[in-house]
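From the shared-data thread, chain only:
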Amino acid sequence: MSEPLQQQIKDLAKQYAAEFIEVRHYLHAHPELSYKEFETSQFIQQKLTALHIPFEVKATTGVIGLIEGKNSGKRVVALRADMDALPITEENDVP
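Structure, as tokens:
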């Protein structure tokens, strides 16, 4: 990866860090168990829609977003994330 591209990625990460931290805090504060992530799924769909990223909903709550690059069909990068919570009680005292 070229130096200018690395710097561009770092700059973008810095630019959007606060927004992504806010999203993470929201999701952590609104946990949903497996196969019951209806609000979480809607939240993700709204974010993808706002970013003009096409998506499909699978298995009721699963969300698959697709970001195509300039050279479609050349290389594929897949990212996977769980969005279900564990059935535990937090013992810390933070929001």
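Residues 3-65 form one domain.
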